[in-house]
Design goal:
Order of helices and strands: EEEHEEHEEEHHHHEHHEH
Number of strands: 10
CATH superfamily of the largest domain: ATPase, nucleotide binding domain
Helix content: 40-55%
Strand order of the largest sheet: 3-2-1-4-5
Structural class: alpha/beta
Mean pLDDT: 91
CATH class of the largest domain: Alpha Beta
Distance between the termini: 16 Å
Number of domains: 2
Strand content: 15-25%
CATH architecture of the largest domain: 2-Layer Sandwich
Shape: globular
CATH topology of the largest domain: Nucleotidyltransferase, domain 5
């Protein structure tokens, strides 16, 4: 078998692994819940990936919160660089890469060559992230699988106004008590995700969305496009874009 290269992105909620061959073609992916151990999550995602290929990688690059906890990785790179690299793999143009993650959001401005110009990260609070969506869904006693279909039935275009996940949960309880329809609250969840991102800074004409939230809830892309007026693009397997970027960096490093 020809040489291949791996990237492992250990985030706050999920660990993702991607392998590419010498030409940069994706060979496979692995996924695992982060849980209580970055090391175990990284190993589980990587083992799932390697089982599909049945050979050892030439080089492994780690990224994400747990990038220093990936056993066997020869290098570690920030998720800013890796998301830029992964997004540029799909869209070779100047754009803003917006990664909506489990605990934080990032706006990464890249040029036509994929180089990072500058970036912005959200406040320390997890409002507008995957954790925010999960917490509000729990308060509503609605499964994550049902959220988007309910939101599409909304008759009001509301936004949860609170900037804090805890206060937003309290706001949801108040809305329920007042008789607000669950579908309208669900739409409000996704409107709030977009609102929190837009408040982070000026966005350009082209936006590339990455991360597990976007992959799980395509409605976020359509709301973002409507809210900003920008052209919004979502790459295939958006949750794995950071790991893909790390794999491509592995390939260039060897």
């Amino acid at each position: 078998m020809n040489s291949y290269y791996c990237g492992v992105d250990v985030g706050s909620t999920w660990a993702k692994a991607v392998a590419v061959d010498g030409d940069g073609n994706v060979m496979g992916r692995g996924l695992a819940r982060t849980g209580m151990s970055f090391e175990l999550a990284a190993k589980t995602a990587l083992d799932e990936l390697l089982a599909k290929i049945d050979a050892e990688p030439r080089h492994i690059t780690a990224t994400g919160y747990g990038r220093r906890n990936v056993e066997g990785a020869q290098s570690n790179i920030t998720e800013i660089t890796c998301h830029a690299k992964g997004a540029h793999y799909y869209f070779q143009e100047r754009c803003q890469v917006i990664d909506i993650g489990g605990q934080d959001n990032k706006i990464i401005h890249i040029d036509e060559n994929g180089a990072v110009d500058h970036f912005t990260m959200n406040r320390k609070c997890a409002a507008g992230t995957g954790a925010f969506i999960e917490e509000i869904a729990r308060r509503l006693d609605i499964s994550l699988d049902e959220l988007e279909s309910l939101a599409e039935q909304a008759t009001k275009d509301m936004v949860l106004s609170s900037y804090c996940t805890v206060f937003s949960a309290t706001e949801v309880i108040k809305l329920i008590r007042e008789g607000t329809e669950p579908a309208d609250i669900c739409k409000g969840i996704f409107n709030s995700v977009v609102a929190r991102v837009v408040e982070m800074g000026t966005l350009g004409d082209t936006i590339v969305l990455t991360g597990g939230v976007v992959e799980a809830f395509p409605i976020v892309a359509s709301i973002m496009e409507k809210k900003t007026g920008a052209t919004v693009k979502v790459p295939p397997h958006a949750q794995f874009v950071g790991a893909l970027g790390a794999a491509l960096i592995s390939r260039e490093s060897s």
